[in-house]
């Protein structure tokens, strides 16, 4: 009776037979690992790269290199793999692979997951708060539920950018009106400075300062300064400052404006960043509105103040040809050395002769150049402070030129 009960318990059905065999295999494998007959598979390394990207998701492709020291595969050992990607502690993506058949020797297991682009603004906030630094951490684990064993590999990568330092410049740049009856340049920008002013979940603020010198003999009122911020052609910030400045004649005035990046636009920028091999071109363009003596206004695009900077990231650390998280500047003109502004910002032959405050032009034909005196406010009849401000030589001004200027931009 006892023998018949045991037989019916273990061998009474095909299901029980299969269960008995699986249990026996599991016990055998577990015992072999416990006795040291079989080795535990280890995770040796992992490689990541970005795949396809669209408006909502970014594909992440991961290759795990697994070493199995055993002469047999471990398809029945309940082997799983998983990984997590975080940037400054913000979880960006996670993926997993179930019931992996680990072949003998070294093999590669490929995993695929998707990161939601809506997480980019949250990461960006931490990047700016952390002085444009990001700590990328990728944790990968291979585990066996049957053996209750696991191994893991952690890769860490620091990504650094430097988007604003090149904005700090003491290069003198002319501002031209490009209007009839107006003698250019109407103003000079003697210096620019920029810094991050604050960041929250909605906005990233940039505080920008411009030291503007007025070479004319009359005040020039500026009613507003507009800006547009683009990254790879995607507009991430657009606005204007409604603070009015009156630029006194022969003096330098510091214009301060706060520009904003709308963080909700950064996920659209991210798509272009990945499509462009993690390279982005930051561009800030300005325009200014001046009030005319007639009561009308004109808006001038300040091309000489356009700022450009190239941002490169190497989130996975795969770029062996450059430093991790490198950042470089770019300029439209190869002569530019102090910042990445438009080509007109560079010292050309005209700038060397007209903008150098320590020199005057003794060979001018109509006196107009003596009136401007290079925009740094220093001429033969007046003293300055090294090129930051000064006065016009009113005695040498051409009467016709004064009448032409005053007709449009007189105070």
UniProtKB/TrEMBL annotation:
Residues 43-159, 189-307 form the Water stress and hypersensitive response domain. Residues 323-346 have a biased composition (Low complexity). Residues 318-411 are annotated as: Disordered. Residues 347-382, 390-411 have a biased composition (Acidic residues). One of its GO terms (biological process) is response to desiccation. InterPro entries: Ig-like_fold, LEA_2, WHy-dom. This is LEA type 2 family protein. It comes from Natronosalvus rutilus.
């Amino acid at each position: 009776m006892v023998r018949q009960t045991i037989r019916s318990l273990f061998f009474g059905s095909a299901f029980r037979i299969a269960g008995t065999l699986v249990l026996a295999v599991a016990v055998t494998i577990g015992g072999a690992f416990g006795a040291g007959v079989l080795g535990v598979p280890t995770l040796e390394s992992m490689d990541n790269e970005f795949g396809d990207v669209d408006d909502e998701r970014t594909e992440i492709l991961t290759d795990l290199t697994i070493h199995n020291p055993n002469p047999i595969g471990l398809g029945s050992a309940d082997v799983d793999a998983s990984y997590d990607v975080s940037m400054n502690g913000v979880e960006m993506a996670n993926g997993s692979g179930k019931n992996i058949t680990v072949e003998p020797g070294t093999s590669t297991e490929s995993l695929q997951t998707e990161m939601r682009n809506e997480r980019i603004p949250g990461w960006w906030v931490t990047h700016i708060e952390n002085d444009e630094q990001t700590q990328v951490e990728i944790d990968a684990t291979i585990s066996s539920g049957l053996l209750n064993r696991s191994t893991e590999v952690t890769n860490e990568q620091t990504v650094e950018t430097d988007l604003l330092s090149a904005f700090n410049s003491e290069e003198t740049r002319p501002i031209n009106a490009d209007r009839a009856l107006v003698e250019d340049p109407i103003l000079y920008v003697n210096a620019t400075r920029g810094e991050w002013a604050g960041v929250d979940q909605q906005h990233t603020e940039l505080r920008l300062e411009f030291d503007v010198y007025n070479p004319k003999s009359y005040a020039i009122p500026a009613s507003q300064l507009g800006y547009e911020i683009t990254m790879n052609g995607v507009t991430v910030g657009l606005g204007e400052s409604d603070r009015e400045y009156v630029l006194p004649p022969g003096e330098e005035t510091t214009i301060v404006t706060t520009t904003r990046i709308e963080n909700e636009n950064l996920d659209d920028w991210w798509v272009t960043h990945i499509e462009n091999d993690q390279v982005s071109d930051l561009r800030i363009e300005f325009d200014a509105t001046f009030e005319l003596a007639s009561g009308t206004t004109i808006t001038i695009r300040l091309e000489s103040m356009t700022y450009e900077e190239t941002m490169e990231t190497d989130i996975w650390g795969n770029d062996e040809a450059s430093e991790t998280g490198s950042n470089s500047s770019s300029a439209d003109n190869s002569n530019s050395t102090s910042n990445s502004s438009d080509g007109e910002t560079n010292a050309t032959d005209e700038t060397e002769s007209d903008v150098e405050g320590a020199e005057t032009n003794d060979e001018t034909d109509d006196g107009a150049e003596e009136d401007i005196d290079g925009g740094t406010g220093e001429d033969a009849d007046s003293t300055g402070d090294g090129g930051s401000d000064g006065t016009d030589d009113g005695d040498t001004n051409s009467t016709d030129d004064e009448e032409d200027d005053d007709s449009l931009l007189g105070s």
